[in-house]
DNA sequence: ATGAAAGCGCTAACAG
DNA sequence: CTGTTAGCGCTTTCAT
């Protein structure tokens, strides 16, 4: 038995719709796009046909004509994803709302791959590019000869004429320190990551500036080290030795804070009663798993992504846009580790 | 002074190339694509012109003609990203190699948004869709009336005729348990997440089956609870009470294992000397931050993504592909928490 | 109010 | 060996 000449899943074209509605292609187009004037009956007939055939305009054809693709590229080097994922999702969120689709590229922090992907994105005629990273360290921009706007999110270009948007690490340090002071602490130590990281330096600067405003100095030296729990454990001992009267520790990351918490406990210092503890990142599995749950600073990564996307949209739309490095305010997330029990 | 009629950044078209090389458009096309025969000199002239003008074929035009888009959609519901990100990057990796670009969509686990994004992806004429999740729990498929193939990665469709690829949780449980037995342990307890999770049940099943093979039973009850450190801490006490002679604990997640480690230490049990400890996930910040560093099971999430992508490519290519639920073997990552000091 | 025709950038078939 | 032509699906004048 020969099967009927069933139309395979070839998507319906406007031509099919026009034929089904017994109108010309041009009329069908107008009906579908609400353009031009025509008899209601005609329009309805076309729309009904489109509906029935499950017609969807081919975006390639539309884009070809309009000279637009309604796509942007999202280039990330942070395979690990801890930081860039929230940024990416924020960006995707803001772009998706505007009917812009996002091409995802993972460069694995490899400049060769990055170059390759940029090529591909441009070949695809993306209308803009968002570059995200895992560190806020300045990095060389991806070039200015690009035919589309570029924004840097959670990373910054060394080029002042690029637009970069990063967390306000300094402000985050200020927030945490103010909070510690507000709970009545005055001997505040600081344990953080490598001094080579701008984020570490900025957070520390926020702390010292805020302490200075209150006429205070950090308890002990500021301890730069690594972004690890192990360093937190070690550093806590160093700090306790250098400043035995320490009554608060602000840490450059939640991981470090957990290490500090552990050592404090083992040395018989109660958190928060004897020593208040604040982290940075609001990395929930870390912060909530801490004993007690950790007060920390949230960098609003999603917001960074959203702002980057909006900026990109503006640039694509040809609006005048600022350049330079911009920051997004951080937010304090108070938890038990700084709550003074009465 | 009138500025010269500078060509704005309008990308060069094949027409420009043809004109610059003084050939017809058709000839230019052939030269650029290595199709057809022609004088070397002509070909070179065209290629040189293309080079000089920075010509890139417009993928929209190519796709329009070929009826293909060389894009696939990646739909994730796991905004948190802990599990789906490695899967996504693995998929992106496998697809990128094949010149396929990936549209990223975050549904935030919201069926409405999912529906919306599917619509958008189909409107964009993606050639296939990968659905990823944060749990391996069966979920309703996204439908069979779709005009493109779909694969489920790190989540599974309830529909047997769909193709799903998930970690081998049971095999992971077997690996961990064998390892514990190999270090000479015989009283193995198990603390894991909610029984409602298939992953928890499978990992537990791997454990009990492996113990049974050795003529053993779990030490104490299998403790189902939550995926949290806090639960690990509580459960360890329960376990120590129920089976004081326990000499190993296999945990359903690294987070749980950390909680268990903490309680063990506080109760004076040394890890690994008195009690060996194994986790699950190989979530490095957790596993490495543990004291001592945690032996754990890696689910090979990247591989899951890669395989999903390859399967999708095969399906797109029209090759016959299997359906049903498939698993990717897990791998043991031995660290100090199970190393018997001599 | 509707239809015909041109053209977006490209490739493929066919002439010359 | 090269040029011409048709057409992918769609929108947009411009006739009718």
From TrEMBL, chains A, B:
Residues 12-66 form the HTH lacI-type domain. Pfam families: LacI, Peripla_BP_3. InterPro entries: HTH_LacI, LacI/GalR-like_sensor, Lambda_DNA-bd_dom_sf, Peripla_BP_I. The keyword NAD does not apply. PROSITE patterns: HTH_LACI_1, HTH_LACI_2. It comes from the Bacteria. SUPFAM superfamilies: lambda repressor-like DNA-binding domains (SSF47413), Periplasmic binding protein-like I (SSF53822). Keywords: DNA-binding, Transcription, Transcription regulation. SMART domains: HTH_LACI. One of its GO terms (molecular function) is DNA binding. This is LacI family DNA-binding transcriptional regulator. It comes from Nonomuraea bangladeshensis.
């Amino acid at each position: 038995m020969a099967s009927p000449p069933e139309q395979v899943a070839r998507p319906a074209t406007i031509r099919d719709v026009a034929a089904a509605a017994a109108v010309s292609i041009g009329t069908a187009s107008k009906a579908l796009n609400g353009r031009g004037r025509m008899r209601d009956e005609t329009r309805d007939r076309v729309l009904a046909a489109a509906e029935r055939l499950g017609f969807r305009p081919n975006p390639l054809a539309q884009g070809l004509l309009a000279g637009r693709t309604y796509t942007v590229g999202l280039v990330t080097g942070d395979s690990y994803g801890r930081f860039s994922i929230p940024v990416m999702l924020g960006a995707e969120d803001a772009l998706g709302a505007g009917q812009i689709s996002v091409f995802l590229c993972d460069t694995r922090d490899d400049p060769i791959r990055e170059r390759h992907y940029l090529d591909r994105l441009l070949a695809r005629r993306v209308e803009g590019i968002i570059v995200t990273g895992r560190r806020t360290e300045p990095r060389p921009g991806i070039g200015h000869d690009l035919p589309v706007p570029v924004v840097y999110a959670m990373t910054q270009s060394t080029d002042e004429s690029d637009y970069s948007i990063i967390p306000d690490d300094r402000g985050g340090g200020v927030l945490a320190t103010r909070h510690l002071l507000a709970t009545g602490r005055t001997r505040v130590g600081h344990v953080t990551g490598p001094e080579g990281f701008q984020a570490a330096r900025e957070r520390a600067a926020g702390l010292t500036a805020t302490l200075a405003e209150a006429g205070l100095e950090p308890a002990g030296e500021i301890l730069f080290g690594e972004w690890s729990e192990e360093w937190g454990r070690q550093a806590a001992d160093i700090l306790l030795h250098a400043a035995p009267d320490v009554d608060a520790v602000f840490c450059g990351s939640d991981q470090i804070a957990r290490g500090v918490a552990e050592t404090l406990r083992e040395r018989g210092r109660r958190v928060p009663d004897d020593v208040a503890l604040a982290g940075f990142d609001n990395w929930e599995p870390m912060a909530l798993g801490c004993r007690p749950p950790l007060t920390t600073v949230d960098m609003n990564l999603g917001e960074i992504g959203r702002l980057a996307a909006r900026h990109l949209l503006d640039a694509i739309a040809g609006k005048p846009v600022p350049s330079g490095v911009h920051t997004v305010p951080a937010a304090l997330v108070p938890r038990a580790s700084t709550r003074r029990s009465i």
